Amino acid sequence: MERADLAKFKLPDCPGVYLFTQGKGRAKKILYVGKATSLRDRVRSYFDIELIATRGPRIVDMVTKADGLLHEPTPTVLEALVREAALIRKHLPPANSMGKDDKTFLYAVITDEEIPRVLAIRGAELDMKAKKVIITGVKLKAIHGPFPSGYQLREGLKLIRRIFPFYDTPKPVGEGNKHLQAKVEFNRQIGHYPKNMSRSEYMRSIRNVSLFLSGRVKALRAQLTRDMKTFAKEERFEEAGIVRKQLFALDHIQDVSLIKEDRGDDQGPRIEAYDTAHISGTNAIGVMTVVENGVPVKKDYRTFKIQGLGGKSLNDDIASLKEILSRRLGHPEWPLPKAFVVDGGKTHKKAAEDVLKEVGIGLPVVAVVKDEKHRPREVLGGMRAGVSDADAVLVNSEAHRFALSNHRKARTRAMRKI
Description:
- The chain is globular.
- It is built from 14 helices and 15 strands.
- It has 3 domains: about 5-90, 3-Layer(aba) Sandwich (GIY-YIG endonuclease); about 105-260, no CATH class; about 270-415, UvrC, RNAse H endonuclease domain (Nucleotidyltransferase, domain 5, 2-Layer Sandwich).
- The longest helix is centred in the C-terminal third of the chain and has 29 residues, at about 390-415.
- The protein is of the alpha+beta class.
């Protein structure tokens, strides 16, 4: 597909979901599902020159293969979030950031208890067939997802809870210590947890949450409309008023946190990347860059002057990588990432893994392989680490840029001394 093809799809400037497709009729395949704050602007971004640097080779390959596009507008980004998850579960698009067997992404689950809870749980902790949480054995009424962005799922659940109250305590409601019960009571007071609700009212709220999380928001609106009419007919005007407010909130909820974080396709956890810069072994500089929730965290960037420990040459990339990673791990006050990203192939990946193994840290390493023009060609270990290609390429590009910038400064200072 090319940028000129977009005009025929008449994409609106509003939230929604979009599906890149290939083929026609019964042979049509869904290649990718995404959500957007603006369908028009999001889909246009796939045809930018910098696509490979911002999204990675997997997405570039998908856009090249695609010859069609479907889209579905939604009133809010929150609704787009749950529709995206429902469509990914239904179609299992090959270009999305998870595969059929991937266990790293979050699901929203509803427990099968006297007082059900709504929780965000990683796929690795769920027995999908038995519908239960593996470690605790808690049985589940429903499993919704997968959600590509764990951050956005958690923010989305907070927004949903404002409309349809539910419990999200780590232990069943009524169990636990005094501290937990005090937290429950506090949340009741501020309206986050149900207050003075009968069990039937609470179960109706859980029904609404489940309909929303499954992406069936049109069905939810229809159900709420029926509820409101029934309450009005039975002269239960206070309950009818509550439902009317819920209907209004569904279309007008202020999902600012989702809009701010909506990079759309590939959100991710905190990851760190490392790179070096030198000319013939002089003014060797090593850097660390950080991306969290798909956004560079520049206040956490660090620079290392490579010393060539153990008599190693400053021109030795592998030795330099091991040195800066070892020195970084000497700072326990810095928060550990979910994964480390290195520039290079299997050899660089193995070198970083060896350093981590030596200090007893079992975090994964991802490598960004470059082509002869130093453009990202492949991402190694990203899927297993739960890191999207886009985030790996982004933090790697930031490390390369930061390393070159610092090296230029070092060279300038050296020249001034001559």
